[in-house]
């Protein structure tokens, strides 16, 4: 979780629980047990392993729908112990311990004492739209590095530098040969300089074409290729993203409200 969630509202608070297990399911159960223990202690209720099993058997749920997304909100309603919570997201790693490999899972919960609280469920995307495009337009490869594709970005920058450098060097050599043609009257030397000047001209044009093609690829890749997943900023009212599938291709517009 990248820490950019909005602050907890009066309706709920965030809690992060850590669980471990031989499987992801076991790690998730461990994180849930940790949450229930914390909630019970906070409510002044002694929570034993038997109580945990009873609570999980009694937990009921309802479905919260928003923009075609479903989230399960769990309800605990026991004497002296009332809570509603939803798992907003999780992250896990497979780590090596002295006992062998285990899964370590961080679960982000939103907890409330109100049954009708409105959960905030973070959404992630691998699209960057115009943010990556204008960076690549200013400096080829910058947009790719901004999206997390550092190796690709470095290759694009290096390719552009090499091609532009080759273009400049070839043009300087071509100009030098043309100058030598004007400075001599020997026919053999003039023919040699002319051939060399034509060669440098072809190399210059090839470098120019390559630099332009790489720059165009850099722009297309910046807006169309996926990058690292990042949190969707709900504060942005509009977002453009590329669409491409077997039936059509184009640009989509998303409006958040």
Overall geometry comes to rod-shaped
- Series of H and E elements: EHHEEEEEHHHHEEE
Proportion of residues in extended strands: 25-35%
Can you summarize the main beta sheet? Answer: 5 strands, antiparallel
The radius of gyration over CA amounts to 30 Å
- Which residues sit in consecutive blocks of at least 5 with pLDDT less than 50? none
Distance between the termini: 24 Å
Note down, in words, how this protein is organized.
The protein folds into 2 domains: 13-122, no CATH class; 130-255. The protein is 45% helix and 29% strand. The protein has helices spanning 24-42, 49-58, 130-138, 142-146, 150-183, 187-224; strands spanning 13-21, 60-66, 69-78, 81-97, 100-112, 124-125, 230-231, 238-244, 249-255. A hairpin with a 2-residue loop joins β2 and β3. The two termini are 24 Å apart.
Summarize this structure as a short list of keywords or feature phrases.
257 residues, alpha+beta, 2 domains, 5-stranded antiparallel beta sheet, 9 strands, 29% strand, rod-shaped
